[in-house]
Amino acid sequence: MLTESFSLKISSNHLTFEMATKISNAAMFGLSPENMSSHEHLPLELDSSFLNTSTIIALCVFFALLCACIIIGHLLEEHRWANESITALLLGLCAGGVVLLVRKGASSHLLKFSEDLFFLYLLPPIIFNAGFQVKKKRFFKNFSTILLFGIFGTVISFCIISLGVFWIFRKIGVESLSLKDHLAIGAIMSATDSVCTLQVLSQDETPFLYSIVFGEGVVNDATSIVLFNSVQTLDFHNIDGLTVLKLIGTFLYLLLTSTALGIAVGLLSAFIIKTLYFGRHSTDREFALMILMAYLSYLLAELLNLSGILTVFFCGIVMSHYTWHNVTESSRITTKHAFATMSFIAETFIFLYVGMDALDIDKWRESKASAGTSAAVSSTLFALVLVGRAAFVFPIANILNCVQKSESSKIHFKQQG
């Protein structure tokens, strides 16, 4: 709906521009609208209501809920069991239930949540701000540990989930999936989202654990993408040792090129701002250039079939280290708070929609499986994700604890869970 209303607005503006062009052409040649040919008559009336009423209502509800999340989150700031994520989920569930009752069970949908909305508009500011605000010294100090969890851990989780799905799904009556489908499910479910976990952790109170969890989430994304894309392109009738080498090569290519692109765009932004010194005329241009170049790095990565998350993350790290120190003092304050605010709103919106989407009656109706089969599949996947996660977290963490000499660099059992 947001896309449709925006396109309608563009069409309306385009129509207004056409009218102005025809009027100017008529005045230039001494013509009046009455003298123009029949197919060039100017429209006398325009429909200015290009925004759908239902879209406005949906946006009003979402913005009101976002405000409520901020207020309630502030009131519950001192309670460790509650944060904006939990508040947004619960509010989303309540709002979805209310909409479902108002529409008499027809639908709980207010806005159509498309993949483009998530991957192009909501995800980039979250990842960029994480790279921009991350403690760089701590992150790169633990980079080897992050790679162990992000690469080897994801591969272990992928294998366990794929084998479990292949074995258990047949026993509960799901036999229509091929080997490629089972492996694809394993690749998708091994991609764990660390956003909710990071909401609970504090970068100042637990810097080591925060850097490990966040870094593992970023590398985990790249590994999962490589596994999924490889599964889709593999010829399962001709698998040999060369296939494994191709998988490793593809991953290294994705990791290195995505990182290099993010670093390059970050350095370019620092060079441009330092050379041209935008701050002498307008601090707004400095801020605008940083936002646009960061977003451009994400789009370029997606265009080149790289990992946009890795690219925009390292772009944020480079910008915070180089570009940020070349802008004026007012721009530094503005960028730091603006990036954090955009990330916060995007995260809250996602959790809010997830809560509402849980009561989407249309998706439940589309499923042809019985309630028992759906419950069995969901329970199986949930259990396999937990088992796959535990299968690499505890062994790798304990191995690292044996190697690490410093007590502050060890991952204690409570933190592993």
Automatic annotation (TrEMBL):
A Pfam family it matches: Na_H_Exchanger
Coiled-coil zones: none
Main location: membrane
Domain Cation/H+ exchanger transmembrane: start-end pairs: 73-404
GO biological process: potassium ion transport; regulation of pH
Entry-linked InterPro entries: Cation/H_exchanger_CPA1, Cation/H_exchanger_TM, NaH_exchanger
GO cellular component labels: membrane
Subcellular location, record wording: Membrane
Membrane protein topology class: Multi-pass membrane protein
Keywords from the named record: Ion transport, Membrane, Potassium, Potassium transport, Sodium, Sodium transport, Transmembrane, Transmembrane helix, Transport
Spans through the membrane: 56-76, 88-106, 118-134, 146-169, 251-273, 307-325, 337-356, 376-400
Catalytic activity field: K(+)(in) + H(+)(out) = K(+)(out) + H(+)(in); Na(+)(in) + H(+)(out) = Na(+)(out) + H(+)(in)
A molecular-function term among this protein's GO annotations: sodium:proton antiporter activity
Name this polypeptide is given: Cation/H+ exchanger transmembrane domain-containing protein
